[in-house]
């Protein structure tokens, strides 16, 4: 497989950096081709502005979606954005690695998605039937994605009754609202809890879990999110009453195990 590893941590000597290095080495040993975007090392610009869109930006009021779509179609996106899109086009799988900060992504990584997943590339794509291709369909459909993250909280505190909220819900905006929205198949994440106080034996366990997941990158079953256009939703994109009857919340958008 061709694997793109996007890494967002400011310290390469961190626990995250050590896991990244071992993960890249594991992928290469398994025969995969690997490219990396180390956002801090690249000094990635996370800020969307008119300069992203070249001649299409002009002097008019900036409407990001429409302007980015035209710039993408006309080949006028800034070179740094194009370079990342070319990596994504090349990749069969995307690994996104980051420390969980304030319930979300580091700003530099959020800005990578903001600038790279422009309209016409990450969203705003229509199928032959005229319907918007998203939530399981889209330009990035057929690719796999996996999150690797470190969190300061211990595992019980990010469980179903933990004060920090369940990890699958904390990651919902990224896994469902970004990766799956753009069409990618999302594998269960690889978390490392209590990351600021990991003893050697726990690091060895985390490294082994990551290695095992990378060995099965092609075969691990993705999270069974319901596709938008697969028949589970009505014309208002509301889940039909026969699915998860009476239930609400994020979990209703994941198919139950069979």
Largest sheet: 6 strands, parallel
The termini sit apart by 29 Å
Number of domains: 2
CA-based shape: globular
3D architecture notes:
With 258 residues, the protein is an alpha/beta fold. It has two domains: 2-222, Rossmann fold (3-Layer(aba) Sandwich), CATH 3.40.50.360; 226-258, no CATH class. Helix content is 31%, strand content 12%. It has helices at 15-29, 39-42, 64-74, 79-90, 107-116, 167-170, 172-180, 200-215, and strands spanning 2-7, 33-38, 93-99, 144-150, 185-186, 190-192. Strands 1, 2, 3, 4, 5 and 6 form a six-stranded parallel β-sheet that branches. Helix 5 (107-116) links the parallel strand 3 (93-99) and strand 4 (144-150). Helix 1 packs parallel to helix 8. The two termini are 29 Å apart.
Task: Describe the structure concisely for a colleague.
The chain is α/β, with parallel strands linked by helices. It has helices spanning 15-29, 39-42, 64-74, 79-90, 107-116, 167-170, 172-180, 200-215; strands at 2-7, 33-38, 93-99, 144-150, 185-186, 190-192.
Give the tags.
8 helices; NAD(P)H dehydrogenase (quinone) activity; Rossmann fold; Flavodoxin_fold; 6-stranded parallel β-sheet; 12% strand; 258 residues; alpha/beta; oxidoreductase; 2 domains
SSE topology:
Elements: E1 2-7, H1 15-29, E2 33-38, H2 39-42, H3 64-74, H4 79-90, E3 93-99, H5 107-116, E4 144-150, H6 167-170, H7 172-180, E5 185-186, E6 190-192, H8 200-215
Parallel strand pairs: 1-2, 1-3, 3-4, 4-5, 4-6
Helix pairs in contact: 1-8
